[in-house]
Structures are given as C-alpha cells and as structure tokens.
Design goal:
The complex is a heterodimer of chains A (about 260) and B (about 650). The radius of gyration of chain A is 21 Å and the shape is elongated. Chain A is an alpha+beta fold. Chain A starts with a strand and ends in an 11-residue tail after the last helix. Chain A folds into two domains: about 110 residues, Roll (Ubiquitin-like (UB roll)), CATH 3.10.20.30; about 120 residues, Fumarate Reductase Iron-sulfur Protein, Chain B, domain 2. Chain A contains eight helices and seven strands, in the order ββαβββββααααααα. Chain B contains 16 helices and 21 strands. With about 650 residues, chain B is an alpha+beta fold. Chain B has three domains: about 300 residues, FAD/NAD(P)-binding domain (3-Layer(bba) Sandwich), CATH 3.50.50; about 140 residues, Succinate dehydrogenase/fumarate reductase flavoprotein, catalytic domain (Flavocytochrome C3, Chain A, domain 1), CATH 3.90.700; about 130 residues, Methane Monooxygenase Hydroxylase, Chain G, domain 1 (Up-down Bundle), CATH 1.20.58. In chain B, about 60% of the residues are buried. Classes of the chains: A alpha+beta (about 260), B alpha+beta (about 650).
C-alpha cells in the first residue's frame, strides 16, 4: 500500500545566469512513496502554479534514466542517494516522513546555471565536437562483418559507451573535472578498430577542449564513479591518461590549444 | 460523416506517391539514378533546415553536412544527444542473413508489409528492407558497439515473434548507441561548420510562401525570443504524437507541434488513428503519474500472464491465490501461441480482464489496471540463475520503479501507448503535400502501415536520415534556385507575428487550470475512446467532449510568468493546444475507418474469435486529411494501396 509523507524542501531558485540565486523553503505534503523524485517536484510545481508562483525549472525528458537530461544535487549527492540511479528513476520510498531535502543544480564553472536547477552542459557537446567521433561518411562503410572485433574489447567499449552525458561526474568532483566523461568517449573509440585511425588525434583534441572549457583536473577522488548512474569505472580515466601520453610521445608538439566555442 | 467532405476521386491528384513501377528490386536504384544531383561546389549555397535530432533528424543533418550543404538543425532538448530515439531498447532489424536462417531483403519486406496489416506502400517498404543492410555497416563503422559473438562477428536475436534472427542489438540500449553514433557524426559536422546546431529551440510554425516551404519560426526556450529561419528546404524529423494520450512511453517533451503546424499550413496528415500499444509496461501507480515505462517484451518468453478468476481475489497477495483460482487467459484463449501472441492481442486481452474487474494493483480512477506476469514457474523450471541471466537488468529496473522484487512477487504489467504509425503524408521521396517540406522518421506515416514490427522504428529513422533524404532532397534542390527568400519577405514577418500572437493569447487567458491538468484530461479521454479499442459511439462521444475541453482550455488556462523568459508552463501550453486539435482528427479518422487493422481495433469489426477484421475492399487506402481552416472540419483524401507482391491475408494466432 502506498505510504504518504510530508517533506520540507530547500530548493535553489535562480531566475537567470546573472541572478545571485538563493535557497527557498517549500513544504511538500502528502507525497506518495511510489512517486518518482521528479513526480514529487511536479506535484510541488502544480501547487506553486496554483498560487501564482513560478514553478521550479528543471531539465528532464525520457524519465527512464537514459536521455541524461535530468540531474540535480539531492542532499549534496549528484542524482541523490540511490546508487546507479538518475534523479528521474529515484523513487520517494527512499525517503521518510518528515525528511528535509536540499536540492541544488550541478555546481561547476563550466556548467553555468540557466535557471533554478537547469544548467548549460554544452561544454560536453563541444568536447565531442573536438574529436569524439569516427570520421566515416554515410555510405562509405564497408561490410560490417569484414572486421571482427574481439568480444572482450567490444564489451569493454560498450561499458564506456553507456555514458548518458548527464554531468553528474563533474558535479560530484571537487575539481569539477570532466575526466570521466572524456575518458568514456576516448576509451569507447580507442578500444575499437574503427576508432584506430584517429585515435591519437582524438585524445589530444578532446583533452585540449576539456581544458579550454574550464573543467578542473582529475586528482583521483573517485566521486565521479560513485555517482555515475551508469557505473562507468574510473579505470577509464587511467586509460585516458595512457592514451594521452602515448599520443604525445608519438608527436610531442601536436597539442594545440582550443577555443571555448 | 457529417462535417467532413470525402474526396471521391479514385486517385487524388494531391496524393501522387511518385512510387516507381517495374520490378520491386530495382525501383530504388533506378529512382536514385534518375534523381537530379547538386554540383558539389554549389551545395554550400543551399540552406537546409532539419527539425529534430533523433535517429532520422540527427542522421539527416549529419549527412547533409557531409555532402556540403549549409545545414541548420533544431532540437528542443539541451543537446541533440537526448532525442527520444535514445530510449529504444530492443534492437534494429536488418536483412543481413548472418545466421543463414533463410532471411533476405524480400523476407524482411514481406514481414513488414504483412505485419503492417496491408496498409503500407509496397515500394517504400521494399526500399526500407533494402537499406537495412547499409545501416548496420554504417553504424558499425561509426563505432556502435553492437553485441558480438566470441568469433568477433556480430550477434543477432529473434525479436517480436519473427521466425528469423535478424535483430542487431546493443544490450538493452540499442537506441542509445545508434543515436550516439548519429550524434557523433553530427558533432563532426558542427566542428566542420557545415551544420549549425540550435539546441533548446522549438519550431512553432512553418513558413510557406506561394505553396512552397521556405523556413520555420522558432522560440528560443531560454530567452523566449521568437525568430524566423529561412531556407531552401525544410526537413521535419520531429517524432511521433503518442503524448496526445498524456501517459505514454514517450519522453515528456515529445509533441506534435512541428507536424501539426505544418498540417495547418497545408501538409496532409495520414492515418492519424494508427497508434501502437505496447503490452508490457509498468502500470500507473497513481494520479500523479507522469509517464509510463516500457519493459522489453522479451519478458513474455518466460513469464506467464494471469489474473485471478474471481474479482474478490484481486486485492489478495498473489502468492496466496491457488493455481485453480488463476486464469492464465492468454494460454487459455490462444493455446498455440499462448503468452507470445502479438502486441495488439496481448494488449487488448489485458484491458478486457481489467475492464471485467479482474485487474490487479493499485486502483486508479476506479479501475485496477494491471495483470500479473509471473516468473515463479520459470524460476522453478530453469533455476533462479538462468532467469537472472536473461532478465536481471529488467527485474532491477522494475524493482527500482515499483519497489517489488519480481523473483518473489509476480510483476504487474499494463499496456501503454508506445509509437504512432500515422504522421504527415509523404510520397516516395518523403516529400509532403507542401513543396519543399520533407518528413522523415516517426513524424511521417510511410513504412509501417497500421502496425509497426518490433525493431523496425530504428531501421526506418536511420534509412530515412542516412540514405533516402540525402538523395531525394538533392533531387528537389537541383530544381530550385538557392537563397530564394530572405527574412524581410512579408510572409516571413506575418508568420512570426502569428506565432507571437498565439503565445500572447495563451498568456492572456489568466484562468485557473495548469496546462498539465488539461493534458491529463485530454489524455484520459483519448485513452478511453481512441485507445486500444474503439467504437463508433465512443468516438462520437470523444468528438463532442474534445472541443468542449478545448474551449475550456482557452477560457481557463493559467500560465505563470512571461513569454520573454524560460517558461516551461508556456512550452507545455503550446504543445497541449496542438494536441487538442490532433486528438479530434485522430477520433475522426478512427470513426471513418470502419474496419479493424493493426493498432486500430474497432469493436464493431472483429471476427467471431474477437480478432481484428480488415475490410480490404473498402479500406485498402491511406487516409490523408487536409486542414480546412478550422479544427473539426477536415477533408479526407485517399491514396489507394496496391499489393503486387504481398497479397493481403488474414492472420491467425489460435
């Protein structure tokens, strides 16, 4: 049977990127424990709208944990207390009656706040644009089975490729580093023969872009791995470093600094 | 029909499909050869707009970029990587015949025409089957990590009742991996500056000048700025309209605005009543429910579907209900197919059981909407480890959402809206009835007829985006002068003003109800009367209720905030306004189609065994609706369907 609970929310409200922003306290009453966290916010928003107050803005779309749109700090933890779970898949049964919950946007210089809990993650898109692809034109591909890929390599590439680009890794990192995000894409393509021709160039460009965007450096806190909803391992960061060193060794002067946009 | 005129001509001049004739195997290659080309040095002069960045839009924008056109791509999400194609789980079909199990392009074509219940165009479907093999090559070359065998070669599985294993998959995340492949190709073209990406930007209208699509009007979702973007061609890949039902497996933002606004500007809307229900979704748990989550239908391979025989047992602990008091209704009604009957049959039977009062789980709006999907027998037969190997990720997902462990307690399932086969009418070139407006992916109606087979949506989106549109759009552009219209044209200004006026109108209502409350009410109406099964009376009832509710919407809508800022309530209100008009057209189309076909089940038209009964003599056509100036009085046009290769037959699953 459904359990109902009353909660207190401290929500970060910020009208625009330049607005200083502040925490606002809300009461969320009669919350059903079968609701998802975002459905709880929907209920609060409907009430705010009825009172003529602006609803809390947050990004969300698929609500199945795969599109990567949602993401917020819930009691200081990216995506909240359940491991391997995006905010949209977090359910209220994780909380109990009377709980006080603090909800904030991702905090990172490279992710400026757009409004309330929404941030601008276009730095991730620019990092992929810098080289996170295989340059194959539509129609230029050869027969798919003409190039076998060792199953273990393919599986490991898949583990890296599951990244949903939500940004939790950056939000959780004390340095706001995007190392796990970048490592996941570099590793995914470096592990596959299809990614080999551009391998060295790709890692150089993606790391240069990551730096240009203002993400911090990795100092192995492992917070990223702990909050990643897809459980992507930080061993990929080791792989990223190895890829970078080997790319630099083969052509030491090839890292060009990149612009932010 | 009282207020809809019927065009009586056997072949409607508006609906020339331009489908080639001749041997079906050669139609696409001949058509491609006859298509005109644009000189590489001229391509950058042509501006191409692509709306949507999913499998169809992302692939099309990337490919136009590679070819050297000047491309602008728009999406409402904060990044093109988040388009809803990403949520597809199962896989993608391709006629590679890697398993040597008798598959071929022709068999995939045959299965798709038959699966669509003979309501699709043969030429289009054959082309889709033909291109399926190129798609796999393309995706693998991009680095899509499809499942592989120990040999290092690609793996396949059989999916959705197909007798051959032709489905390629990437764990349960095939859509995600394919979309990231397209997104990465798009990123490459953004870097190369052949594509300009406009995220968080929503198309609100189409600019049509002298009958030709010349651009779009958009709203910047962050600043609220309304702007015109002109182009030499507009390509819509904006997805389906399943969210008209409010609760569906679609992402929250999925909407019909791009397609509906184009319909209002002259693009005919085809077969809007063809919607697909997926039988295995997690049931609604309360009134606050915001969306439904699909669970792979592979679960039906080992799970047994049942409800209590006695309504009095519905609230009891399922484990306490003895075998003799359980009704394994699919096994009872369909002894040879049992729990593996097709999606539409499994869905309708589940609804019947719940409507009879034998549903289980929480009561929502007076009905328990759920049936058990029980793995206890499978655990006994195969052992818990073997069951875990097959389904553990799905079981975990189920437990995360419901808090119940499927190894201990039977899962609860209920059907949900999943995909829409209807969409804007397009010819063989994927061009709509507006010159210069092309439509790809789920947004068009073209390839799935009345019912889409599993693992075919991804195939169609990518076929359209990588391979069809680049040929057919080039053929169109080769015949037009680049840069034919600029933003100072009076019609461009007029369309911008129209959009601004629409926004102002919504903001000025200042009533009491939120967009969501109207959307929920509309969705419930549609689900009850235009959902899994439909009757003439029910549809007529909906056709009186929808305009009433729409009227209330325009009287009592409340939006907090302004149009000159990020305003998610305003975004929703605009989408709901368009859903209202589409909903009415869907009901009208469902009422007009006096037969049952695929996802469209009319209770009046069923066999003695309760199966869908087509009427090929009267309804072997595409119903394409023209907007007549006011919602509620559309004009019907018909494109007759000919079947030269696959002859219509009735299916049987007894």
């Amino acid at each position: 049977m459904a359990r109902l609970m009353n909660l207190v929310l401290n929500v970060w409200r910020q009208k625009s990127p330049r607005d200083p922003g502040q925490f606002v306290r809300y009461e969320a009453k009669s919350i059903n424990d079968h609701m998802s966290f975002l459905e709880m916010l929907d209920v609060v928003n409907e009430e705010l709208a009825h009172k003529g107050e602006a609803p809390i803005a947050f990004d969300h779309d698929c609500r199945e944990g795969i599109c990567g749109a949602c993401g917020m700090m819930i009691n200081g933890v990216a995506h909240g207390p359940s491991a391997g779970t995006t905010a949209c898949q977090l359910h209220m049964r994780t909380f109990k009656d009377g709980d006080e919950i603090t909800i904030e946007p991702w905090r990172a210089a490279a992710f400026p706040v757009v409004r309330d809990l929404m941030v601008d993650r276009s730095a991730f898109d620019r990092s992929v644009q810098a080289g996170g692809y295989v340059s194959v034109r539509a129609g230029a591909a050869h027969e798919a089975n003409s190039l076998p890929v060792r199953k273990s390599d393919s599986d490991e590439a898949f583990d890296a490729a599951t990244c949903i680009g939500c940004g939790a890794c950056v939000a959780a990192c004390p340095n706001a580093s995007a190392a796990l995000f970048t490592a996941a894409k570099v590793s995914h393509l470096a592990l596959l023969p299809q990614g080999a021709p551009e391998r060295a160039d790709r890692v150089r460009k993606m790391v240069a872009q990551m730096d240009a965007e203002g993400f911090g450096h990795c100092s192995s806190h492992k917070e990223c791995e702990a909050v990643c909803p897809k459980g992507i391992s930080i061993s990929f960061i080791a792989k990223l470093n190895r890829e970078l060193v080997s790319a630099m060794a083969s052509a030491p002067n090839e890292i060009k600094s990149r612009q932010k946009s | 029909m009282t207020n809809s005129e019927v065009s009586t001509k056997a072949s409607d001049p508006l609906l020339d499909s331009h489908a080639p004739s001749g041997p079906i195997e050669q139609r696409w290659s001949e058509h491609r050869f006859k298509s005109k080309l644009v000189n590489p040095s001229n391509r950058r002069k042509y501006k191409v707009i692509v709306v949507g960045s999913g499998l169809a839009g992302g692939a099309a924008a990337a490919t136009f970029g590679e070819l050297g056109y000047n491309v602008s791509c728009f999406c409402y999400q904060d990044s093109p990587r988040r388009a809803h194609s990403i949520a597809a789980q199962g896989g993608i079909n391709a006629a590679k015949n890697y398993q040597n199990d008798g598959d071929s392009v022709y068999r995939l074509f045959y299965d798709t025409v038959k699966g669509g219940d003979f309501r699709a165009r043969e030429s289009n479907v054959y082309r889709l089957a033909e291109l399926s093999v190129n798609i796999i090559d393309q995706c693998v070359a991009q680095g899509v990590p499809f499942a592989r065998e120990y040999s290092g070669l690609l793996g396949n599985r059989s999916f959705g009742g197909a007798q051959v294993a032709r489905t390629f998959y990437a764990r349960g995340q095939t859509g995600q991996q394919l979309l990231l492949g397209a997104y990465q190709s798009l990123a490459k073209q953004i870097e190369a500056k052949t594509v300009k990406m406009h995220p968080r930007t929503e198309m609100l209208d189409l600019i049509v000048i002298d009958g030709v699509a010349r651009g779009i009007v958009t709203r910047d979702l962050v600043t609220g700025k309304v702007a015109a973007h002109t182009a030499d061609v507009v390509v819509l890949c904006s997805g389906g309209y399943g969210n008209v039902f409010y609760l569906s497996t679609n992402a929250k933002g999925c909407n019909t605005t791009a397609t509906w606004r184009s319909h209002r500007k002259g693009a005919l809307f085809a077969n809007p009543c063809f919607t697909q229900i997926h039988p295995t979704c997690i049931p609604q748990s309360g009134d606050y429910q915001s969306k439904l989550t699909l669970m792979s239908e592979s679960l039906r391979n080992d799970g047994r579907v049942w409800v209590p025989k006695n309504a009095a047992d519905c609230t009891k602990d399922p484990k306490s209900i003895p075998e003799a008091d359980r009704d394994y209704y699919l096994e009872r009604l369909y002894p040879s197919f049992g729990n593996l009957v097709p999606r539409d049959i499994a869905s309708r039977r589940a609804k019947d059981m719940c409507d009879e009062g034998r549903g289980v789980g929480p009561e929502v709006a007076g009905v328990r909407r759920g049936v058990y999907l029980d793995f206890s027998e499978a655990v006994k037969r195969l052992g818990r480890d073997a069951v875990a190997e097959r389904y553990d990720n799905l079981f975990q997902m189920y437990e995360r959402i419901t808090g119940e462990n499927p190894y201990e307690v039977p899962m609860r399932m209920y059907p949900a809206i999943h995909y829409t086969m209807g969409g804007l009418w397009v010819d063989y070139n994927l061009q709509s009835t507006i010159t210069g407006l092309f439509v790809g992916g789920e947004a068009n109606f073209s390839d799935h007829g009345a019912n889409r087979l599993g693992a075919s949506a991804l195939m169609q989106g990518l076929a359209d985006g990588y391979f069809v549109l680049p040929v057919t759009v080039a053929n169109y552009l080769a015949g037009v002068k680049a840069g034919g219209v600029d933003e100072s044209h009076p019609e461009v200004k007029r369309t911008v003003e129209e959009v601004e006026a629409r926004i102002a109108k919504l903001l000025a209502i200042k009533g009491k109800r939120t967009p969501d409350s109207f959307h929920r009410e509309l969705g419930a109406l549609m689900w009850d009367y235009c959902g899994m099964s439909r009757t003439a009376d029910g549809l007529r009832h909906a056709l009186t209720k929808i305009p009433e509710l729409r009227e209330e919407f325009y009287k009592d809508l409340s939006i907090v905030g302004t149009g000159e800022e990020l305003n998610q309530m305003l975004e929703k209100a605009g989408r709901v306004a368009d859903f209202f008009e589409l909903a009415e057209l869907m009901c009208r189309d469902a009422l007009e189609r006096e037969e049952s076909a695929g996802g469209h089940f009319r209770e009046e038209h069923q066999t003695e065994d309760g199966e869908a009964k087509r009427n090929d003599d009267a309804f072997s056509y595409v119903a394409a609706w023209e907007f007549s100036g006011q919602p509620g009085s559309p004009k019907l046009h018909k494109e007759p369907l000919d079947f030269e290769y696959v002859h219509p037959s009735q299916r049987s699953y007894k």
